[in-house]
Hints:
There is one protein chain. This protein is α/β, with parallel strands linked by helices. The chain is 30% helix and 29% strand. It contains 6 helices and 15 strands. The chain has helices at residues 2-14, 17-21, 27-58, 74-83, 142-151, 212-221, and strands spanning 64-65, 87-94, 104-108, 114-115, 120-126, 131-133, 155-162, 172-176, 182-184, 188-194, 201-203, 225-233, 242-245, 252-254, 258-265. It has a 3-stranded mixed sheet, covered by helices on one side. The protein is elongated and about 125 Å long. Mean pLDDT is 83; it is low at 6-14.
Amino acid sequence: MTPVQASRLSHKQKSGFLADKLPPGSRQRKIAFGVGIPLLSLLILYLVVDSIVMPIITRHGDEFPLPEFTGQRVIEAQVLIKDLGLEFEVSSEEYSPGEEKGIILNQFPIAGTEVKEGRVIKFVVSLGQKMIPIPDLAGLSVRQAILNLETAKLQLGEIAWAFSDTLPERVVVFSYPAAGTDIPLGSPVNLMVNRGRASNFTYMPRVTGLTLDEAIARLEDKLLKVGIVTRRTDENYLPETVLEQSEPEGTELDVGTEIDLVISSTD
Length: 267
């Protein structure tokens, strides 16, 4: 009887959970060892690569927010860029009124973007204020002089009077600043116009954008009068701002001509 008991004990020890669920030679055991174990191995490999290998390769966790460089000079920003391990390039340059040459106008990526060492930051840099040479206006009518100034992207400033019998009447004698002088884009250019002996004509100034009191003073300075004043509701302007004038700027008029105005009202 003793050998039989030993045989049963030995058989019981060989059996277990895996043997019970996946009997040796069974189809389930073959599938488990043929498919399940490789899939489990791939899963483990993926987890190792994702959590250990990739962070090392991509330096995950080394990102930092990009500082604000706009408004700085490139030469100043360059110091901080080098300290942060970044690089930069000037992607474009453009004229910018009110900004000195070399000032950073825009950056990409924008400030606050998470970046890593070695990232290239692109800048748009100011070329400064664009300068325009004043065209030669001597000998032209006021109207033609205004057109030439607009073509050059300049504005008409003040018109002063000269009295000369030796020069053509009602033409520009000279401009000030003088012709050929480089001035900022959009700047005003003043004209000296010959009246000759006649003193019964004048030129229409620009009064749009001025207050009514300022417009009246400017018209009187040009020997003109205020005609009909019409009010129009426009909340985009302060009350009593001149919105329209009945004669365009630079028009030759008789002294004492009445100029109708349209002014703003909030009522």
